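To: structure subgroup
Subject: Chain for Friday's discussion

All,

I'm putting the inputs and outputs inline so they're searchable in the archive.
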Amino acid sequence: DPGAPVATTTDSATGLPIYSLYGRTSAPTDAMLDGIEVLLVDLQDAGARFYTYLWTTTEVMRAAAGKGIPVVVLDRPNPIGGAVQGNVLDTAFRSPVGLMAIPMRHGMTLAELARLANDDLGLKAPLSVVPAAGWRRTMYFEETGLPFVPPSPNLRSIEALIHYPGVCLFEGTTLSVGRGTDHPFEQIGAPWLDTTRVLALLQGAGLAGVAFHGVSFTPRRPGDGKYPDTLVTGIRLRVTDRGRYDPTITAMALLEAVATSARASGHPIFPPSRAHFERLLASARLDSADPYTSGNWLGLTRSWASEDSAFRIRRRPYLLYPEN
């Protein structure tokens, strides 16, 4: 379940310890590193800023730097390619779900991000990387010919991964993102959602590369506590053109439509604290956004194209693969 701690244990075949970095500590302790000669990082990133494998990798690098232990990142493809979309994180909002000034969809691999983090965060880790042979930034995962292993129980398909850089924002709202269903991160909903009105509002939003339709679903053991065993009305997203689809702007348009609908019914789209949503969006401009006023959410996206252009330039020294 999301957020559930993982215990440290022992490998039954070898008797070697298996130390959890998702439990009492998110960083290796001195005791864990005792006698270690090299640390290998072999993780499948999800391609979105919110995914915490980057946080784990940087914590490993920080701990290794303190003891002079070499770190080797065994790189893997970015499963959703090299597109750059969404706002660049304001470092005032730095957290495990947003560590560096990178966009929501960063278009980099984990090894490239580790190289950037080593400089950006001043880690000074003795870092080496093993590139993924043959990967190009235009590739989605199924084009690699490699077997797809979901990086998370709730990111089960490439379709879900493509939506994730945008739909993940709804984790900070009162709406379900489909956890506990067959299509997590491909749909959002709540028992009170007026899907007819939301769909009508989305028709005028001019969103390319994506289609929407109304659905109903019942989350079973959703893990996030949202509407377990409750019939939810929602909106399903479906990518129709990957080259034109921007999941980050789509999420803001969807948020705007939901807010307009919710205002009419009086249902809150945020819990009492908006802290988690603020960590996810990570924008200083968020303070000016009235959660019920139509127009404000899409208004926040106006600077994103220029932010992304500047980021593409800043990331160039750290790239391992051609930009095209």
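Points worth raising on Friday:
The two ends are 37 Å apart (CA to CA).
The beta strands are 9-10, 17-18, 39-41, 71-74, 85-88, 103-105, 127-130, 187-190, 210-217, 232-239.

D.
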